[in-house]
Write the structure tokens for this entry.
Amino acid sequence: MRLLLYSLLFALPLAAQNPALMDEVVRDPNEDVYIGKKEHIAAGEQLYSVACSGCHGPEGEGGRGPNLAIGPAAQNKRPTQIHRSIKNGVPGSDMPPYGSLPEDQLWQLTAFVSSLSRPAYEMDIPGDSKAGQALFYGKMACSNCHMIRGRGGALGPDLSNAGLQNYVLQLREGVLEPNKRITPGFDPVRVITKSGDTIEGVAKNHTNYSMQLIDRHGNLHLLETRNLQEIVFLKNTWMPANLTERFSADEIQNVLAFVSRQAIRVPSPDDAGAEKESN
């Protein structure tokens, strides 16, 4: 008993000096009230657009302030930590304290910021998933390049688990700004063989000696670099960059809703908050 008491007396000052250790112990019960709740996320988004978007971007993509979706500022942070940063500000940065806001608004902001770095599958993304599925395999022809559960092409990344592997911002960027980030293993390339044939596609593996290339029709080419007269890695992907000119905002949103629901292992309602379609 005495040894246990000594251990606790030693651990408490140590935890006080190390915020990370305190975060492991202290969890604000407001997390259960606000985090993941649609109405609080929506209210937080309204507050964010007024108070935060000027620095962090309209969708948390970053600007003068850090990216809140795929950067260390929010990723892997517990809601209690995010709440603390919003309320007290971040010393040594341009982030001011918002402690003058009512506590419910601080937690609504926390709910929205937390939602930015949660898997898209867990978010209630607006749109008609069924209509998005029809567009994906039909009018928008996404399946010409992207595969879901073995159905579709191989020129673009497999989207079978896209809802769990990506945040909402990443999915939206992938559709609307495909050249902003190129997925590793899908570098667009054009090669000309010594016999004069031109092959366009994506380089799966590339060394000084050989290249594995999937062409725009989905065929795999195993090429020796000594048999190539030219190799050009292209700046832009094969993903069309003008979808907003070719399709309506509703059509694009429906496809995003469909892709966001793709998960190989469907989380239980306890994990995801609510069961969603996954076909």
Summary: The chain has a mean pLDDT of 85. The CA atoms of residues 176 and 245 lie 11 Å apart. Residues 2-17 form the longest helix (16 residues). The longest strand covers residues 198-206.
